[in-house]
Fold each of these.
Amino acid sequence: MNRAADIVIPELERAPRANAFAQASGKAAPTWLTPLELGSLAAIWGASFMFQRVAAPEFGAFALGELRLALGAAVLAPFFWRERAQFPLRLWPMLLLIGAINSAVPFALFAWAAQHAPAGIVAISNSLAVMFTALVAFAVYGEKIGGRHFAALLAGFAGVVILASAKVAGASTGLAVLAGTAAAFLYGVGVNLVKRKLAGLPPTALAAATLGCAAVVLLPFAIATWPTHAISASSWGSAVALGVVCSGIAYALYYRLIQRIGGNRAVTVTYLVPLFAVLWAWALLGEAPTWRMAIAGALILGSVALAQAKPKAKAAA
């Protein structure tokens, strides 16, 4: 999710409306549209880690996170304005809390991690968000977790250990992996809070509201650490792309997918994001993938796939 990101989405449980888009338009969507949109979304969110890798060293974690949040909220603001009547004053403390947990702190953590590890490594750690969502639901809300999920947790943990033990140019990436893993855990907490505290709200407007609240939370830290040196054009371009494309436009595209094909199918984009992140970083930043990254990525993404898989009997039903 880097939200999507960034990647983890608050309204996955509200997606039995698969094909709602097709029904509203009066005709079925072309068969090629869904794969194209899933691939495009994965490419956009994969690129977000590359953009952070470029911009974070000059902006710093807080300033870059603030720019990303503010620009993303601005892009989605029209959706919120259209649905503003559904957001009474009593909801805003919870929106502020979820904005901090689900966007402000994770974005800052990922921006910090981008300064200390290759984009692919940070993207792989982000993939743990889906698994952490299930773990938090089990530990806090008593949702059942079976042997398959337990095996997935062990595999994911092994992947994190392997990833954290990697070294780039002689320097350890352990702290960067821990930062990415912590951000993924916060995504898991945030998703569960949204499901239980803000269910029923229009999803794109909700994304706009939480991104806006997150921008408010991060603003004092961004002001206090705002860079005093000149920022290069490439870093400014990366920051704008992060906010406008990787947060604002990507959220709108993702929620469109959820409404048309359902959350369970839309979340498969999670498996593609690290692949695109590695490819972008390799092609444009010269960060070649390593065997350690491949093994860790296989363990983590395999754990996510295992946790998401449904028993055959349930699938048949």
Amino acid sequence: MHIPDNYLSPSTCAVMAAAMAPVLAVSVRKAKAEMTKAKMPMLGICAAFSFIVMMFNVPVPGGTTVHAIGGTLIAILLGPFSACISLTIALLIQALLFGDGGIVALGANMFNIAFVLPFVGYFVYTCIKNRVASERGEYIGALVGSYVGINVSACIAAIEFGIQPLLFHNAAGQALYCPYPLQVSIPAMLIPHLLVAGFVEAFFTVSMLTFIKKVSPGSLYEGEIQRSNAIYALLAVLICLVPLGLLAEASAWGEWGADAIGSVVSQGAALGYVPEGMLHGFKWNTLMEDYAVAGLPASFGYILSAVCGAAITVILFRIAGSFIKDKKQHDAVV
């Protein structure tokens, strides 16, 4: 679901970044009003979990892959505004250090993954939870909300892909950016998400919610970590397991490089050309491209990337938390 650079036109990316800017501004303001020093580490841990779970690629029919995100889970734990910030940081690190998602397309990826997914998922979760007043309702809400959230997010991304050939093409009619129209992009994105990714996301959300309620209920009800050793241990286990994501060797739909897209078969025929915007577009050279490290086996590079990504997210939020005054102490002084 991460849109690479040069799949969307610069003007589309600018529009999406402009749409995301007020969302981030409101999210930061809301989070600052609600967040305490004790809650800040949980933001980093949630970002780390999301970063890692996105490395577990799952093969789907059609020769592409999908992955979970955990956006609805973070919204349930910390609220949708805090989830937006947490996911935004994860996306930033993925794009800047690992080339997963574009730099120019960052606004679009943030809009789809850090805004649409957690807010839609949380809305559905809240609606069900409020109508089924029991623990069962909470789990049903989490399951349905996470399933709906990731599929709505995928649909928005498919629309962004699909409008490109309609709006941006050369005199010969060839697309300048993403070459697949809406009638191709929407089913290509939605079918794998409806059939596979939605269920993977729901399973991850409900499993993690069950685990956190058992070992650290304060994370759910107060946003503060309890029994952090158990949470960090789970994080470590997932990091050790990330090489499983390498078993799915294919790319996700819409994430092919310029060197591969011309030969991608869609609707029974290869594209046969490379869109000009992709061929001569923006290129960002990252330190650990595609979660690989030069000179190391793929599995070790993948694990090292997971360690670096998770560590950076946790450290960033701990540093940010150090600048937050303890609200209880502040209120007492006042």
Amino acid sequence: MQAFQGHFREAMRTDVPLLDHITRYIIRRNGKQMRPLFVFLTARLVAEQDAGGPAGPTGRRTFVAASLIELLHTATLVHDDVVDDSPVRRGFFSIQALWRKKIAVLVGDYLLSRGLLMSVDEDTWDLLKITSEAVRLMSEGELLQIEKARRLDITEDVYTEIIRRKTASLIAACCACGAASVRPPGSGGEEVARLRAFGEAVGLAFQIKDDLLDLGDGTITGKPSGVDIKERKMTLPLIHALQCCSSGDRRRIIRLVKHHHDEPAAVDEVMAFILEGPGVAYARDRMQMYRESAVRQLDAFPEGATRAALVDLVDYTIAREK
């Protein structure tokens, strides 16, 4: 990861002073960088399987994969802050808050183009295909969520499909890119598919944890509780609670979310309804189910420190406090 920091800084480099100033700000505020970790660990897992033991140094293709994923992820965050008009990201002022929306959109476009050019320059077309597919799925997931938020008619199946595209697709791409990066282009299909499925299950668990954190979940979340309600997002705890309540309560809660989501008293009432019902426990069970599904995908790989580290990283995603 220390070596990756230098590689990522180089990937962001530009001779335009304003843009260089903004990219350096982005690098300074980078968060947990879980996605590059998934790339490096899955790459090492496959490399160790091929070597029948400890693998050699991490190759350049894996660094390209990690940088490509991080550029894509950072670009989507910059654009998301514009769409949501968010003033803060990870405890820092967002790009759109400091430099206005027009510049933020252009910065996000620049980051996406840097990832595309890096793939072309490094001739890593297979990695570009994996990440481009993730971009498509993420866009579809966001639009599907917006469409459903207008009617608030989301079932659990629709919710799962939204988060599979919107959130899980990028973590799936991390793991698929990691596996693909240590194999010749076009080979290693079974390992790539298995680790893509691993990443997708992790991503589903990750999003359900976010749903719980927005309700407090007994932790310090690092963001205001009830944001999902204010944005009229149908999360898994709310969906299940609505399925288990009376028709009268269902109509009342949907009316509050649909027409009074910007009123603190209404948000508090909806949150109390969720926390007092069966939705939170059900969401935790589903999150654990996806965790178990992810770990089972790793059974096909040799036991060792790398596999154990991946399990630890999965457990961190569902135990984190923000």
